[in-house]
User: Fold these one by one.
Assistant:
Number 1:
Amino acid sequence: MESRDHLFFSCHFCSEVWQATAKNIYKTRFSTSWHSVVVAACSNWQDRKICYLARSVLQVTVYTLWHERNGRKHGEPPNPASRLIQRIDKQIRDQLIVIGLMGDRRYDDGLLIWCIWTNSHFILNMLEAFEPSLDLSKHMGKGKTGVLSIELQRMEGYDYSHKNHSADTRINNKTCEFDGSQLNHDHVSFSSHDLLDSSLQTHVPLVDVDKVRWVLRNIVRDWGAEGQTTRDECHKPILEELDSLFPDRQKESTPPACLVPGAGLGRLALEISCLGFRSVGNEFLYYMMICSSFILNYTKVPDEWTVYPWIYTNCNSHSEDDQLRPISIPEAGPSSVGVTKGFSMCCGDFLEVFNESSQAGMWDAVVTCFFIDTTRNIIEYIETISTVVKDGGVWINLEPLCYHFADILGLENEISIELSLEDVKRVASHYGFEIEKERTIDTTYCANPRSMQKNRYYSVFWTMRKKCAI
Ligand SMILES: C[S@@+](CC[C@H](N)C(=O)[O-])C[C@H]1O[C@@H](n2cnc3c(N)ncnc32)[C@H](O)[C@@H]1O
């Protein structure tokens, strides 16, 4: 039976909307019981802006849910929770903007706080969805045996525009696969409640904060409408090349197998499977795997989530609006893209996972996109690619050769080998590859389309074929 308490907010649908909009603000005061919510909203909030946001989000959510309820009563089609959450998000932002325009500057950073909370909401949901659950206390130190092992190790990372990372967190040689379902890994536990405890943040190394921001930017590249241009520049030529190289793949009893090392958030590997390949994306960065798993396995509708990827830098910005603009993801629901049976993500270090003898000659195609310069020793990558590609198979590569470890000494004064394109091709030839096609592709990488600074890469794009053994 409908009652006030049912609607606000014990009903499953309403509680989903309320949680999404209010949990990060109310933190430990959060509740779905109307009485407790009213007590919390009327209580003392030390910070004026947070107090405003807490009360405002309650008012807007109540209004939105009541409006939805009336619409349904009058036969209008129901809106999914994600749409209502987006409406509430927009309403709060609009209110804050209007307050500023009216000359009241007291809530100026309220908008920024709101955007950060919206990002936290997305991140918490991502972490909560990761099955089995994660114990983030283990994230604070070295990986422990018997659980998903995370190790901090010196490396620059993969950020093409910022060469200042000193460490990276990666999954240590663990393979996790999801075949249109979920990642599997050893059991670990995690409570999102702990994350709302602000003292926890003091333990998070800045380098990890930076990684999370970097993942948010990669989300735009792989899953945002704004990333379409860069996907057209990078993914399209690869997909067209695969399409033309394997014209009879649909007729074959077993579709050709394609491996995508350094798959990032998985979009390219997924698109390759949609072309009718068995496609495996390989990725070692824990953050990337959690995020791609969430988008691929847990998003139900296009534009389900809102994030603010551009709020973390004040540089090169035309306007505050540009910085504070929301991005809806995924621009196409993975289910509408078609998470096919032939698609999986394999988690672990490419060199460790694919140097197994069982992988030798297993792949009809290897596709690398902005990947082969992510190592200190590019020769090892080329050797491994040559081992896994079958005789007569192909290696398609798009790469600007930024060399992530350039000028960064490793733990034991390990150096980085930075070969020129000519030398890289020589090494590839040594490992049995012959160039069939080569051209330059002009593209950006995770650049903010509205920034005054956009790095462009004049990347080499090639198709090489592995010579048949005589
Ligand atoms: C520059 S990003 C490119 C991602 C994706 N290919 C794209 O074009 O958007 C390189 C990716 O390779 C991953 N990576 C780097 N070294 C790796 C390794 N040894 N094994 C697996 N993945 C690796 C990084 O975590 C990162 O996601």
Number 2:
Amino acid sequence: MDLFFNTAFDLYQLITHNSFARVVFALLTGAMIGSFINVVVYRLPQMLKNYAVIDMHLMHPTELTESRARALLADVGLGGRSITPCCDNRIKARHNIPIISYLFLRGRCAYCSTLISSRYLINELVMALLCVLLVMLGLNNLALFFMTSITALLLIVANIDIRYRLLPPHLTMPIGFTAILMVHYDLVLITMSQGIISAIALYIFLTVAKTKGQILLGQGDVELIVAVTIAIGAQMSLSVLALATLSSWLVAKIRRVEGKKERAFGQYISVFTFGA
Ligand SMILES: [Zn+2]
């Protein structure tokens, strides 16, 4: 046990005093968080679908009978070992090392060689690089902790939004709380009253504009932008909204699909502007 504490202490000393060690540590931690993000992105929508099925059954027990509801339920929780989606095999620890396993397996399932989506690798890489960026900004430990949390949450939001067009309060609420804590600990340039008033004002403004049909935002989008407003203030969040609208319009033009959802990336840009 002594050895453990000594090693941990030495490691901490190394990380605090050696900037190279700090970057390596950020890279590894980021990759691991990215790996966890992949798990959440994969499982959370299934869990939400389960809740919806249960609600449906409880509200309309005759239309959706218990046996049919049970058949629709996916077997998921946030705990437990991961199973390959392609062939239902347990993912071994050595196949679960962030970034490295993906490259080692050349992006294929270890059991059935099905191609694994590159977004697993992308999320791990993006989170690793963002963690390095945050460390290089020279934030203190508390700021680093909250910035990493909010970055991870936004990356989850972006993933789930793009894949499922879903922006559940299970994600926007924690972002809001993180924003409140960041204001509380003076990690941003905004006071609590400024943040809260901006958020409420923006919420009212967006809701009115939405009911009048003047903007194309989902309820989740509104909640998300209001949540980040607490930490970045109304001015910044309006520019984020403008940027996000512009970029989603551009992407829609390029891809010729009905635009709206590339927005989650806009938030991203914003968080880094105020982080810097
Ligand atoms: Zn497989």
